[in-house]
Amino acid sequence: MTQISILGCGWLGLPLAEALLKQGFEIKGSTTSIDKKELLENAGIKHYSIALETEFVSNSIPDFFAGSEILIIAIPPKLRGKNKDYSDANKNSFVKKIENLLPFVEKSTVEKLIFISSTAVYGEVNATITEDSTPNPVTESGKQLLEIENLLMENNAIQTTIMRFGGLIGPDRNPARFLAGKENVANPDAPVNLIHLDDCIGVIQKIIEENSWNERFNAVAPNHPSRKEYYTQKALEQNLVPPTFNQANPSIGKTILSDKLIDLLKYTFTQLDL
Questions:
Q1: What Rg, from alpha-carbon coordinates, does the chain have?
Q2: pTM higher than 0.85, yes or no?
Q3: What percent of the chain has pLDDT over 70?
């Protein structure tokens, strides 16, 4: 039985762990606190309380990795803002936390790694985006995610696949509430690039099933209505006040394609009516 360690059993990691368990994998899962121990273990997931740090590594990390062939890193960088510089602030550096973790991964039984990244690495452009497009992140989160992507892909000790997810929707992430009631919202004609939790799990399962490593994949549902069309419709569907949009300025927004995922892995998105 293949064992998988999932670093970060939160909004994505926990339901992913449950789905992989149903497929017959043995799962170790981490959270940042002991509070979720009962929740995970009742689901059949061996729980570890792990918070990534820049100066030291939790004593439980070696055991968390032990026996696992695959590691999935599903933790958000928790960085916000376009102009803030966190690069020298150790407590905020997601890059340093992953750098600090890597030697322990290399010494472990882990051979394959899936890193959950974001389409934020592409920045703000008016273009159609594929995996061959040059990343140009503008947010600190996007910048650090791209640096970590490159760090992992250049590591010859591990076979890494990068998942660049679009905007996440699903339980507790209701798109109708994102912009409801807001006024003068920018970029009304920009396309939306979203993915449902079910497809986030589905594409990760497909990566493992197809043994598709050393790749970067965009993961965004293939339909791209405009922000104005989409968020107005979602607000009306739930009897919320629709947002109003600023039509005075030209809209800026990218269209992210998941053609590589669809063509190479033969993946079919299950959630198109987002």
A1: 19
A2: yes
A3: 95
